């Protein structure tokens, strides 16, 4: 039964509008305090504190929701089937995203009319060292790193995949002991509910955090950063919008969901993802909203956190487009063989770099050299990476939400009546 909203709730300004207001105020402050180091530091610190508040509840929500969801599912065969479908879906959609990025790069050629020598280079030394460290680990190290040797260390070090791995086994173990495990399930459900309540409190300061983050970005970069790289940014955003509306729209349509309905459900999270450029900032609310939308707890708690590591469609588009942009800017002709190599390398490196700080840019560093593009050239687009990151974060968020719906529908584990009630509540 849908809860009726109180008069106060009906007349209060929605969180989405407040976040948009914070966005506008942040842009104004960024223009006013352009290149003002004191103001930039203050805004960065406020924004960092907001992101920290969100990160504080992310892993507890993943741990409690996923463990309880798996325990309620109680079927290892079903879990294996869901896991298999999820990985296949992620790989297919990521590959499609890379292909669309490459098609957009070839058709619109955003780097063809750019004089590389007139672009301002940025310092990418930190990315270079991160790429080298990540590359030294190799595929086996990445796979082995999924298994936690110390679960509490995994929590402390924000190792999402390790937490997911432990939660799955803990949930299966809880289900295996039968009625005795019910007390654990009840406890975890209660903790998850508390964490969602804390998330709602934290989101009340989102307009301030969003304003500070966007303000710091504008104050650092200024409007001039859009100059010679404006066409690249435009093509990147147009391609990402195409992916959401056409590709994800078609996939969702097959499973009986309108993409605009999903966008309506996620409007606040989309604004938050765009302004913070942080997928983690939206994870707690995505899990909560997809459950209310009708996705089963076990599916959403498994698919969404896993997708934030393996299903980064926005990042895949950016990486393909960025690699072609740099090749065109340097006047390097890429044959079909070169582009097939790029496709295969991106498919591998985008998974191998999962969880690495600045992963999208690090993947580009690890990829461009395979097609003969100088690594140093990426210094010229590093300056606008944050602007594109805002868009690709939105694609990642919408993509992972859509994935949870698709997997749940394919398992016939989607509560249609619950979905109808929730959508009706949004219209009240």
TrEMBL record:
Gene3D superfamilies xrefs:
Sodium:dicarboxylate symporter
The membrane spanning regions, by residue number, are: 12-34, 46-66, 87-108, 160-178, 198-219, 231-257, 316-336, 356-382
- State a GO cellular component annotated for this protein: plasma membrane
> Membrane topology type, per the record?
Multi-pass membrane protein
Q: Which GO terms describe its molecular function?
A: symporter activity
Q: Which UniProt keywords apply?
A: Cell membrane, Membrane, Symport, Transmembrane, Transmembrane helix, Transport
For this protein, the record's Pfam families field holds: SDF
Which InterPro entries does the entry mention?
A: Na-dicarboxylate_symporter, Na:dicarbo_symporter_sf
What is one process in the GO biological process aspect for this record? Answer: dicarboxylic acid transport
Q: Where in the cell is it found?
A: Cell membrane
Q: What is its main location?
A: membrane
PANTHER family with a match to the protein in the record: PROTON/GLUTAMATE-ASPARTATE SYMPORTER, PROTON_GLUTAMATE-ASPARTATE SYMPORTER
Under what name is this protein listed? GltT protein
| Natural source organism | Weissella cibaria
